[in-house]
Structures are given as C-alpha cells and as structure tokens.
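Quick question: what would this complex look like in 3D?
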Amino acid sequence: MEVPQDLKYTQEHEWIRVDGNKAVIGISEFAQDQLGDIVFVELPEVGSQIDQGSPFGVVESVKTVSDLYAPAGGKVISANKDLETNPEKINNAPYEGGWIVEIELSNEKDLESLLDADAYNEQCKNEME
Amino acid sequence: MSPETSSSLQTTPLIFIHKELKGKLIPFAGWKMPIQFQGVIREHQCVRDGVGIFDVSHMGEIEIQGPSAKSLVQKLMTNDIDSIQDNQALYTLMCLDNGGVVDDLLVHRFSEDHYFLCVNAANTEKDFQWILKNAGSFDVAICNNSQETSQLALQGKHSEVLLQKLCDVSLSEIRYYHFKKAKIHNFTGIIARTGYTGEDGFEVYLRAGDAENVFRAMLEVGKEFDLQPIGLGARDTLRMEMGYALYGNEINEESKPFEAGLGWVIKLDKQGFIGQAALRKQKDAGNSRKLIGVRLLDRGVPRPHYRVLKNGALVGELTSGTFSPSLNTGIGLCYVSPEYAEPGTKLEVEIRKLSVPAEVVKLPFLPTRVKKD
C-alpha cells in the first residue's frame, strides 16, 4: 500500500499535502481499497469553511457511504469537479488525479495533531489484523 | 438481525480459494462470503460482457422424495408443479396461510415422486422446518442436503462454451429452466440452466467435497475466456438490473406477492395450496400498491429505505437500491400507490438532504438475455 512520505494523515484515512498556507486533501490508497469502486462523491461548496475533524463531504462505493473528515480547517478554494463524472479517479490515483479539495489553511497548528507517513502506515497494518 | 461474530459464521468449501483470490470477506446470512474480488463494477461488467463464476454454496438444497412427494410439493407451492416434467425447474413461492411469503425458490423435478428445492441461504432452516411441519401424513422423505451440497454459478454469454469443456453432457440440449445430471471435471453433479443475472448461464450443484476441485478446473479452463470470480456485491447489482426480487427486501412474511408483481407464479386455480384462500382474496381486492422500478435522473446512489417523494410528499421507500454499472446511474425498487406507478412518472429520491430527480421505469432495467426457447 502506497503511503507517500511527504503527506500527513488522519486516523480516518484522509491525507493532506501542504504548500505554504494552502493544502490539498484526499483519501489514502488504503481507504479506497477498503471502500471498493467509488461511484459518487459529494464535494463541499467552493468558498465554504471546513473545520478540522468535521465531515466536509461524502464518498460512496457501491456498498458503502463514507463521510470525509477534514484533516485541517480552512476555506475551500477548489473542489475536484472531475470526480463528479469520474469518481473512479479516487481508486486509480488517490494521491494525484483523485484529489478532493484544496483549502486555505486557517490554522497551521492543526497539522501538529496529524499522523506522519510512518505512524499512518503502522495504523493501517494494525487495522488489517 | 443479531450481530455475528467471526466464530459463528459458516464458510463454504471454497473459502480457501476466496482467500487465495483476495476476496473481501464479509458476513452474509450467517456465512463468511466474498463481497468482491477485483471490484464490483469490473465483476458486474465481466458477467455482462463475458463470463463470471460465483460461489453460491450458501444457498440451501432440500430434497423431497416418496409416493406423496408431488402432492406435498403442490400443497406447499403457489406455482403449478403439473406444468413441469422430469429434468425441469420451476420458480415459485411458498406462502403462509395468510398469503405472506415464506420464501421464493426453485423446484427441480427429477421424477414425479422426487424433487429438490433450491432456497435462499437466510431461509434454509426456516423452509426446512416449514416443509416438515406441513408434511404431516404425507408419505415422503425430506432431507436438508445443504451442508453436503455446494453450488457454483457460471453466468455470461461464454458460460456454455466454457462449461462444455468440463462436462460430459451436451449443454446446448439443456433448455432454459431445465437441468441434467452430469459429470463436471469427472465429478457427479447437476447442471441447471438457471441463474440470477439475466444472462445465459448455469447453476451447478456438486458434492461439497468436490467443489474446490471443480472451481479450480473452471478457473483454469476459464483463462481463455477471461473468467473472473464474482462476489455478492456484483450478484446484487446484476439482479437489480433485472428487477428480480430479493427475499428480505421486496418480499417477506408481511408482503403481498401480487403487489410485488409475482402473480405469474401464483396459480389460484390449481389444487389446494397453503395460502390459496388468502391470495384469492388479495387478488379480488386488487392491489393498493405496486412494486416499481425507479431510475435516478441525476447523480447519486439510491439505497434500501431511502424515501421516495412526489413533489415533496412521501409516496414510498426503496426496498432495494444500488448503482447500475450497465446504465451508469442509480436504480431502485419501491412499492407505491398505483397512481404513481406509470412508467415515466417523475418522482424524487431523498439522498441525505437532497431530493434527487428520478422516474418510474418499466422492469427490467436492462433487457434479459437468458436463452429462452
């Protein structure tokens, strides 16, 4: 399972890629594998505020409905509209083409409570048992 | 349903293959079954475009044999056993006295005094007890062979040419809803031209101990046809596209089979069967609701129990719902009052807080491709 080193992760399997005061958010390869074929994504409105730890969208596979939890709080500056017609991008490229939203971070301190790649990898291993 | 612990789940003889093939195992009707292998969508398309193999060993097999076998089967079933001959199968219901549905099932006739039933996994014990209870003075032997029997399904247009490589009978001579005793990869079994997908295909009944060998042989021979193992997830999307009822969703002991569109398997004029009087009353009274197909006109995934509205007013709840890979849209089944049942009627399906536009469509959602005569 791919777990890129340059990202931070939540316990709920979201990843965040920080670039200055902006960040891109998606779900991990582990998450998409658990969910199965993704057929629907509910994105937040551009301009809306998302709060760390709160649900900001929904991702659905044929069998499951799953809330998306914000790794950090901020204002949504972009949402991946591509996912509305090609939700399978989350399965095929969870860290690239399958990105979900881009935000302007409200508080950099939010990032401190997140897992680094190794810690997240450990968590995934434990979940597999 | 009570929560199931890992230790209380049954497994089929194919559990080792499921694990080898990296099937995602989940609890289903008291069994540990694969919900998917490569992915529901890919598996669904594999059956629609080529051929897929299902482990359906969790289904139940009950045998009824003896001088009074036909009388008992006629008494239990809503459909008319006189309409089938040796080596033929019949889709039917078993109903309670009040017309509620005990199960939907297939009856296979070996001979006038020898039958086997294929019943839903969740209802196997219940059906067996029901049959015993009603067998009273009938001169029959009734056996629940489910533990000793495995069942595989091969479904898709390449099913016949694939299976022919492994069996000793001419499959082109087995007509739709007929079956034959045969040797599959040299193991004795029964091959029935039946299925739950709407494609041409076969359901193969084997001794439990032989199932793994046969499954492996099918996988080997199937390489030429890109045969894939198919999980329960795709089994559901496939049957949904056909508008087939699923016991527990569309029908149960409280439902009225005529409302479910199952009048065609209820032969009110045949000799006495359990539930006949109540069903005749239901038919005469007319349907106060009807099972319809619903298709979303916008993005979203409809699911069981989602509310169905007409101009904002509640008209029903989905009994089943899913994403249709063939239609690339959401589909569902729902009971509504007859005035909303006309194909083309515009409705809304409530998905979380959104009212998603939908319309009533005639079933099946996709044309069937079973090999009818």
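Answer marked as accepted. Chain A has one domain: 8-128.
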